[in-house]
Amino acid sequence: MIDLVNEILATLRHNKLRTALTGFAVSWGIFLLIVLLSVSRGLINKMEDMFSSRDNEIISISGGWAQKPYKGLTNERRIELKDRDMGILASQDANVIAEVSAEINSDSAIIMTSKDYLTDGYKGVYPSAQATNGLTMAEGRFINQNDINSSRRVIVINKESAKTLFGKEYAIGKQVKVNDLSFVVVGIYDHEWTRGSFIPFTTARSMSGGSDKVRRIHAKIKGITNLEEGEKAESDFRATLGRVHSFDPSDESALWIWNRFNDYLTTSTAMNAIIFAVWIIGILTMLSGIVGVSNIMFVSVRERTHEIGVRRAIGAKPLSILKQIILESVAITTLFGYIGIVMGVITAKVIAMAFSEGGVLKDPTVDIAIAVQVTVVLIIAGALAGLFPAMKSLKIKPVEALRDE
């Protein structure tokens, strides 16, 4: 075995430039595969993190502008959702709706303390808004049902808002002024981009001056498993609200609908397609290097025709020659493949460090399972690259090989 290893190393040393150039193609293919896999994994991790932090079985509905005439009514009509629409949707579309909630926005409200103030306004919401918006509580709690039932003056604010209003003081239990009304801070949440403040829906309704309009309705769906069913639920909601607000159900401008469930399914499919495409691109790039290895082994067999003839003449078995050539191919492929793996992993670590503070990627690293898979692919590819040159070498007759110069 040691003699075989020494023979392989001697062959590689004898053709340094050719081996290096061929090996570079293999390394480059593996390097690209690892980097592409790390970036795609970072993108998928980011998407999974975003979707896992919020309730994806939600269809959000907001009022729009009717663009089609309907039953004598002109176009360019404002469609505004109201409190009653929640009950109508819940009863008429009960087959696909598990729960209905709504929110009221006051974008102009000022929230202030003796230290500073905010002009972000507030949202009047139900307890389900925490999951709908994907909010993580850093301290305290979110709005609960008792707050809704009693119309309590409590408020949940963002972590950055708490620093603005209270500085380094502990904010839970402290009071803030919202339109000159006192509210108690019961929770502080953390979120990547949401900065608004939340109060109970019933409290916001009592502050709305008798209005029954809502900014948005959230329908938590049930029994829906695919895109077609999700699209049908949208159509049913348009038809139900179209009858109430007198607009054409086919008029998509009348309502703004965000189907989070369909978005989730579409994004998941797209992520799987990205992973598949990355593997295809990486493997094709790697194959170009493997073809180079096969070519160099064909050249090596041709150059060593005389040597092979001598070995056959003195009794070397065909299997030993076959094994040597295949192992040489595996050695070249594996050696330079591992160089590509190492460089790819280092680059993936650099990318992970660059995006450690957020961005479009999250944890873009390659796990050990991928490295093992790539190693297996390398060994198999190296064996296949050497198989055909090795088979060619066995066809060389000792007498003819001894005549070769």
Give an overview in words.
With 405 residues, the chain is an alpha+beta fold. It contains 13 helices and 14 strands. It has helices at 2-14, 16-52, 83-92, 129-133, 145-150, 159-166, 201-206, 227-245, 260-303, 305-313, 318-354, 368-394, 398-403, and strands at residues 58-63, 65-66, 77-78, 97-106, 111-112, 117-118, 122-125, 136-140, 154-158, 175-178, 181-190, 197-200, 216-221, 255-259. A six-stranded mixed sheet has the order 12-7-4-13-1-14. Helix 2 packs antiparallel against helix 9 and helix 3 (83-92) packs across helix 8.
List keywords for this structure.
405 residues, alpha+beta, 13 helices, 14 strands
What's this model, at a glance?
With 405 residues, the chain is of the alpha+beta class.
What's the β-strand tally? 14
The low-confidence runs, each spanning 5 or more residues with pLDDT under 50, are none
- Helix and strand element order: HHEEEHEEEEHEHEHEEEHEHEHHHHH
Number of helices: 13
Write out the strand line-up for the largest beta sheet, numbering strands in chain order: 12-7-4-13-1-14
- Return the structural class: alpha+beta
Radius of gyration: 34 Å
Measured as a percent range, the helix fraction is 55-70%
Shape: elongated
Mean pLDDT value = 81
Largest sheet: 6 strands, mixed
In percent terms, what proportion of residues is strand? 15-25%
Distance between the termini: 29 Å
